[in-house]
## 1
Amino acid sequence: MQRLFAIAAIASVSACLEVPGTGKPAELAMRDVSAPDGASLEQACTPSGVEMCFDAIDNNCNGVIDEGCGVHTGILQFAIAWDAAEADVNLEVTDAAGEVAQPGEATTSGLYKDRDCPRDGGCFSQNVENVFLASGEPEKGRYRVVVKLEKLGTATAPVKVRLGVRVGQRSYASAFELSPGDKASEKAFEFTL
Ligand SMILES: [Ca+2]
Ligand SMILES: [Ca+2]
């Protein structure tokens, strides 16, 4: 009788560092962030449980804002949410080429706007505006994000607004108030990718 000993050298360590959804490591980061007086754009994320819809907050700190809520996301995402349903707050994202993302039409760099509340009609008092990059690589350069109180309507000022920004696998957040008036009605952020 002869025994054969097969030595199987299984030493295949799977060193997969791929970022889900992108197929490669994403090292996108914001640089030279400029925030308006009284607001900041912070990367700090405190996990507060499961993802909540329509709050523009990455509640579970997985780098994606309002996932599973019917809003689109991408490697770039900008979202605002506000509670005063009667107020009209606008999110204007200008890409590195100077184009503003509009509902129904992508910029040349691929930024779409998929919610425009409360005008959309499908908002049901869950007022969110959302801009995202559907595919491809984000264009490098300077981006400008303006959040503007367009109409107060019957809402009471100030209107509390939350802004969430996703860049790669990181999410950033800001919270501030808007009131009617030249300076108080608008917050402008800028950053470089
Ligand atoms: Ca999330
Ligand atoms: Ca959320």
## 2
Amino acid sequence: MNVEIKGFGLAQADKCVTNQDLMKIVETSDEWIKERTGIEQRYFSTTENTSDLGVRASLLAIEDSGIDSKLIDLIIVATITPDAMMPSTASLIQAKLGLNNQKCLAFDVNAACSGFLIALQNAQAMIQSGFAHNALVVGAETLSKILNFEDRTTCILFGDGAGAVLLSQSARNKTIGHYSRSEGDLEGVLTTDSLMLNPDFKSNLSQSNYLHMKGQAVFRFAVKAMEDAITEICRNEKISLDEIDWIVPHQANKRIIQHVATKLNIDINKFYINLNDYGNTSSASIPIALADMKNKELLRKNQRIIMVGFGAGLTWASTYFVV
Ligand SMILES: CC(C)(COP(=O)(O)OP(=O)(O)OC[C@H]1O[C@@H](n2cnc3c(N)ncnc32)[C@H](O)[C@@H]1OP(=O)(O)O)[C@@H](O)C(=O)NCCC(=O)NCCS
């Protein structure tokens, strides 16, 4: 059974925060951030939690697909910043979309910045197995909740937002394929604080959950991971890079993308880049980029697209699809 991405949607968080705004919080400069990352601004959410952003992106993806929301029978949300440890953000989105009274399963996946592609891979497998017919696949984050605004090496990189796609059965020929890998990291390359054991059985209200990162180690991993994921998806799908119209990368750092473009000898203009506007929104970055492209009328029927992501875990993944 073939599947196809039929709708795209994105939700921006409410507060646009420029590099100049961050200069009032940490010792940094617009030049440093732009030169080292390419980021000019990001959006932080002051009112909506992850599920609210996910709902807004989902409603747009459903509308774009033209599919009756009552036919959605699977919701997978990729996030590392859920509203709560439980219930899942997907369950909250199901309820907020009014999809409770039907045969529908909702759950979250955590594969950090590769999460959206892993969620998509799961949704495809569940549709092809006959379990589901129409899947909402969402990447949604409120990373501002876990940023340490005293750490200038991380707080300048990330943003909040959500993107969603509607994946459905399709009468067209095979239009989607995946590659994904992980390598467990005990070195703390990209982590949040651990949830501590509580041997005294006392309430622990002071536990923090900040993000920590070894920037240069992540940079080196990211270049290697993207190179592998792009090369392997082309091999799996028996397609050459010349035949690809767009590469939609995880939007972490423009210099990472430039390194990959140089190493694989790909024209940098084939990469869709909007991290200058959004920063790194983790699992939301790829679906936001897709919806952004759709809104700008850059996605055309039969174009061949590779999406590629990498992140904590460590995880990396790529998806090939035909628009
Ligand atoms: C974080 C990152 C931008 C740092 O860039 P870098 O070129 O490696 O910079 P370095 O860590 O070598 O730091 C260089 C200097 O800039 C300083 N610096 C760090 N953050 C700064 C900031 N926000 N503003 C100004 N200066 C800063 C450092 O303190 C250091 O100063 P020093 O030379 O006096 O010690 C880069 O490593 C990176 O993007 N890594 C990947 C991160 C990522 O993508 N994470 C998400 C993955 S999903």
## 3
Amino acid sequence: MQYFDFRSDTVTLPTDEMRKAMAQALVGDDVYGDDPTVARLEEMSAKLLGKEAALFVPSGTFGNQLALLTHARRGDEVIVGDACHIVMHEVGAAAVIAGVQLRQVPSINGSMSLKDINRMIREEDIHYPDTGLICVENAHSSGSVVKLSEMKAIYELASQKKIPVHLDGARLFNAALVLGVPASQIAAYADSIMFCLSKGLCAPIGSMLVGEKAFIDKARKNRKLMGGGLRQAGIVAAAGIVALESMVDRLVEDHEGAKYLAEKLNAIEGITVLEDRLDINMVFCKIRLNHLTEDAFVKKLLDAGIKVNGSEDGEFRFVTNYWTPIEAIEKLVTEIKQILEAK
Ligand SMILES: Cc1ncc(COP(=O)(O)O)c(C=O)c1O
């Protein structure tokens, strides 16, 4: 059975163009620096973000944790938003790999107040850890995009205090589309940026860590330490090149699909879409299931050929992507309506 999958944009499969590029990729041992396809992807990524260098890494989590390890020293404090991916969904890796302490700032849809960040930056004191890094996430996994002015203010404060800023830009290009600026303009307010090739951009594997050359040189060695020195990685980097060349601009279709889906869901009795977080390709909503259990609801959709996740904190999330065209969205709406209306 063929399914339409709204669980995430991580489920996206590579396109035919990617599969062809992968089959034909020129490769070499990238740990020796011999892989021309990886080198090209790294150059493209650095250029696109207006930075000096970039590094291909296996995943977004790997890229974030590598950034923490490379910027900070063991025992440092890293300032992060309290609902960010690094805190919520990276298995506590910051404590294990970089050996840092995460200082969490209250955040609303990814936004943190400058006052709170400033309050959490440590002064010199024999009792205090050093503040080694500030992390921002944009687009945020809540579905929201953080304003450029906010990123600028954080970056200026951090620069003044000589603290580097890392941007978890897993969905950087989604954020850029919403803000109406090139990705480099967002990247200008961070010292390092991780972005994913494997989410809405449909590459099967891989993320990029981007920054100044000295930082990336250090990160390259740390990547090896973390077991991420890949050999003929050009096979997968080739799909990443296609992702950057042909999948960035079309992300707007995912955003439009999400807005359309939100409108249709909101018209169904018992569903409330959280409209304050409808910036990118994610629709969050509360669904009154009446007598139906949540497992039964998810199973009924699955039986109809639609994959969705169960709720988290009482919210369902539907993620539009390249493989959920308008027919898929219509089908999701129709099936949900039927399930909720059935006695
Ligand atoms: C905001 C954010 N950062 C980082 C990641 C980690 O990416 P990966 O799943 O490739 O480790 C994700 C994954 O969904 C994410 O949403």
## 4
Amino acid sequence: MPIWKNWAGNQKSSPSVVERPSSESEVIAVVRRAVNSKQRVKVVGSGHSFTGIAVPDEIMIDLSKLNRIVDVDRARGLVTVQAGIVLSDLNAHLEAQSLSMPNLGDVTYQTLAGAVSTSTHGTGLQRTGLAAQIDSLRLITATGETLVCSTEQNQDVFHCGRVSLGALGVITEVTLRVVPAFNLRAVEQPMRIDYVLDNFSRLIEENDFFEFYWVPHTKWALTKANNVTLDPVDSPGRFRTWYNKMFLENYAFGVLCRIGRLFPQLIPRLATILPSTGRNEYVNISHRIFSSKRLVKFYEMEYSIALDSLAPALREVMKMVDDRGFRVSFPVEVRCTDGDDIPFSTSTGRRSAYIAVHMFKGSKYSEYFAAVEAILRKYEGRPHWGKIHNLDASDISSLYPEYQRFIEVRNQLDPEGVFTNDYLRRVLGR
Ligand SMILES: Cc1cc2nc3c(=O)[nH]c(=O)nc-3n(C[C@H](O)[C@H](O)[C@H](O)COP(=O)(O)OP(=O)(O)OC[C@H]3O[C@@H](n4cnc5c(N)ncnc54)[C@H](O)[C@@H]3O)c2cc1C
């Protein structure tokens, strides 16, 4: 029986030991014991990666006891937290202090360290992924040494360590740049996919946070435009919130996916139901708009491409789905962010668009994902580190201008591969 498995259930493992340290000194002791006994160590977060990036094969560290707020510096807009904190708990703490993360992905089940380590992002052209919000971090290296890393101290480790793939050591604490709490007005509505693609540049410039889902087998996209507002929260009422967020997005959608898995030939007809949900508009505190509950399980692949390539790339994907006759019940998600300077951020050095494809858990996904991957690779696509892909070190090294810099930092910090696993061997070469 595996002791550990990820959220999607496609990664499983039986580590020899599970350690649950409750202080940094206990983390150091675990790492030193591992090194002395020549065993490998892997920290797992919430297991929300679809790839094997978090798979522990010898010693597994669960940091769920390192989940406290350490310091709030309002004047400088900095919040220091222990690395194992789950994003939903962090949001609740920030809300209580009238503070907020500037941006989030679409769920908050992940740990903070787990999310930043794979370059987790949301949408919004004026915002970056979560890792670029890091001001400093504390890292336990393979020698059991503690490094404080920022733009002033251990600069090279900081530069690379914000998106570390778990390969540089154990992050125990993170200081984040936060902003005063803000509300968002959300407008959700179906639009013709051709209209969205023809007007994509304008839609992402005009809205603070814009994303859309193309519904395969239809000419429709479900769009979400979220804008910062001074208007008060106008919670649409518990029933309507439950109906939209839980009933439609989870229970009813889950039933459609089940029917589609049993009778794939019905998927194109079932798909036409999705754009009929109509228009929704409401105001809420930002983190409640950014993220939703996800009860329907799926497999996912996501690639980041240069922003300007979005329309031609997505049009190729749409044509391929029709030509190849794939039956796809999950909408294809499209988001965008500003670029940043983190070597292994999927948006390093370029404003980025992201195309994410999903398949309902238990359905065959490999052929569909490989066909999408072949298209996105032509656009110099970079795969999300935590989402299914087939690339290895030789592919990855050509996609990241600072690949070698990361490798050098890793060689210094972990020459023996204490923190490696099969996935890291594949994408980093050892
Ligand atoms: C339903 C769902 C929705 C998602 N939505 C989004 C989204 O909107 N945007 C997006 O970009 N991604 C999204 N993801 C992907 C997800 O954000 C990433 O895979 C993220 O890394 C998961 O965080 P985790 O805490 O589960 O970490 P894990 O998957 O458990 O671990 C990820 C990596 O972090 C490392 N790690 C964890 N803690 C530490 C630590 N303290 N020190 C060093 N390394 C550490 C692990 O070793 C591993 O390498 C989604 C995934 C799911 C399942």
